[in-house]
Design brief:
The chain has 561 residues and is an alpha+beta fold. Strands 5-4-8-2-1-11-14-13 form an 8-stranded mixed beta sheet. The chain has 11 helices and 29 strands.
Length: 561
């Protein structure tokens, strides 16, 4: 702002009063600006952090992950870790820089390449590694990130926790889907790119404790320094947040193998009897999923169920379990229809992620319904496999009370942000039940699930890939139906207008998605009529008292006008 002064005595009392007033206003203005800037800058920093972690930028896209070798020493006494991660990758384009990620609480001591230290720059929770020469497209490279510190603990799902068991012994574990694996180890913290050749974990823990991690146990050895190292090998692609440590005084036992699949269990000594009784549910579940979805994807690595002091987590080949050895979930009837108390929700749901979330993985958290919607539906597959279709339909409809319908299921991609609610679970599963009814052929539906699983196994995908698959599989354009349920918050509404004197019913869809024209069963429940509503009114025979809609087969709003 410019201030012009004309023909004024600069020493007059009037002008001095003006100056004093201006000085006060300027002081207040500056104070206001200064009070505003930190929060504004903090918001900018937060946005930059979300952008760095969320987007698949040029220094991520120029390389493809091949393998991690994570060597780590865990000290429960002071809640610290120290070690290194060897990152092997293939260059997809010529370049001199790559981007990895590590939480700010942890120090990077050095980055080595061919035994020599490299320059690196940290920004927020990412860091950029610069190479002394251009790495050529197609070449395989390895960097070794040496780090240490006290990892973040943000509740039992937010990082790495150092706790004690009932006997006062250390109980250390990781669970980091929300905050990302960077909270305890350096990696390319993106869902889109998984290490295609797997991970080796070499975890040193105090003598008397055991580490249970992903993959196959190669062995353990005393380091003669108060620590024992446990070596695990993952031989399949794995998303970063699935890599896990479970360090405790565990007892190990096994069930009879399912073909070539080994089934192993780990629990605390004081809970061994309860665990042995409850974990018998695992094998029948694996049999059902193998039969109705497809063969377990990680046979070489085996299946493990590991007791933890939190609810549970889908850590690949090492499912975390903490449901207190009881059926259902949260000490009640989880879906409210009398079926949940028949089985342990955590065993079934978290293991279902081995098919949906671990074998098939979303390339962006915005598409998390590919994990959670399908996995919630896997509960229904299990119920149907055990007790039949009628109970499965009742079970899945019990989830309607949990849906909010306030935000679209598919969110904004390229930012590090959690979904706004849990509709990707419940609405996602109810949509799949709807899709089953649209296909209206149970044999074709389950054959389609099997084909979908086999087609996308070991891949990272987006919602568009799912839509394209089902369009091709059915030979129909299902895109408007997918869009209505996944990209809009509100449910489609079927409006009915009755003229009982004429014995007619008018019907139409009110939906946010253009060209939404989902067929739906209505009329007499003993002999359903398949209607083909559009946005325009149509007429069929019926009256208000006897005209019904198959609302248990389709997730919709129904308006009887």
């Amino acid at each position: 702002m410019w201030v012009f002064v004309r023909s004024t005595n600069l020493f007059s009392p009037t002008f001095q009063a003006i100056l004093s007033s201006m000085n006060l206003r300027i002081t207040l203005l500056l104070a206001g600006l200064l009070s505003f800037l930190p929060s504004n800058l903090a918001a900018q920093d937060s946005n930059r952090k979300m952008q760095l972690l969320g987007e698949y930028g040029r220094y991520r896209a120029n390389n493809d992950l091949l393998h991690y070798t994570l060597t780590l020493r865990v000290n429960p006494d002071d809640a610290s870790i120290s070690g290194d991660n060897q990152v092997r990758f293939r260059m997809l384009a010529d370049g001199q820089r790559i981007q990895l990620d590590l939480a700010q609480e942890l120090s990077i001591e050095k980055v080595l390449y061919l035994g020599q230290p490299l320059k690196f720059m940290r920004e927020e929770e990412s860091f950029f590694i610069d190479f002394p020469r251009t790495l050529k497209k197609g070449t395989t490279q390895t960097v070794d990130v040496v780090y240490s510190g006290h990892p973040r603990t943000a509740g039992r799902f937010g990082g790495m926790s150092f706790e004690k068991d009932a006997a006062g012994k250390p109980w250390v574990f990781t669970a980091c889907e929300g905050n990302g694996a960077r909270v305890w180890w350096p990696n390319k913290d993106q869902w889109r790119d998984e290490p295609q050749q797997g991970v080796d974990l070499r975890i040193a823990v105090p003598n008397g404790l055991m580490d249970v991690s992903n993959g196959r146990l190669l062995g353990h050895r005393n380091l003669h320094n108060g620590y024992t190292r446990w070596d695990w090998r993952v031989t399949y692609p794995i998303n970063n947040y699935d890599v896990a440590l479970n360090i405790a005084d565990y007892i190990h036992w096994s069930d009879k193998p399912l073909g070539k699949l080994t089934i192993d269990f780990y629990a605390k000594p004081e809970d061994l009897d309860k665990a042995k009784a409850q974990f018998t549910q695992a094998r029948p579940m694996l049999e059902i999923f193998n039969r109705k979805i497809g063969e377990y994807a990680f046979v070489r690595d085996g299946y493990k169920l590991v007791q933890v002091p939190y609810a549970g987590m889908e850590h690949q080949s090492a499912i975390a379990y903490g449901n207190h050895f009881q059926n259902s979930y949260h000490n009640g009837d989880w879906t409210g229809v009398g079926i949940s108390p028949r089985f342990d929700f955590i065993i079934i749901h978290e293991s279902g992620h081995e098919w949906f979330g671990n074998a098939i993985t979303a390339a962006d958290p915005a598409d998390m319904w590919i994990h959670e919607g399908w996995c919630t539906y896997s509960e229904d597959i299990y119920v149907e496999g055990r007790w039949g279709k009628s109970d499965a339909i009742r079970y899945i409809n019990g989830y309607k009370s949990k849906v909010k319908n306030e935000h679209p299921i598919v969110g904004h991609r390229g930012i590090d942000k959690d979904p706004l609610d849990e509709d990707q679970y419940f609405k996602g599963a109810l949509f799949l039940n709807t899709l089953r009814s649209v296909i209206d052929d149970d044999t074709k539906w389950y054959a389609g699930i099997h084909a979908y699983y086999e087609h996308f196994k070991y891949k990272t995908i987006l919602t568009e890939d799912v839509v394209a698959f089902w369009n091709q599989y059915t030979g129909r354009n299902l895109t408007p139906i997918f869009n209505e349920y996944l990209h809009h918050a509100a449910l489609p509404k079927l409006e009915l207008k009755f003229d009982d004197a004429a014995g007619t019913v008018q019907y139409r869809w009110v939906a946010d998605e253009p060209n939404f024209n989902m067929a739906i069963k209505a009329g007499d429940p003993q002999h359903w009529t398949l209607l083909h509503p559009t946005a325009q009114w149509q007429t069929t025979q019926g009256n208000r008292a006897n005209f019904h809609v198959a609302e248990d087969l389709y997730y919709i709003n129904l308006a009887r006008l």
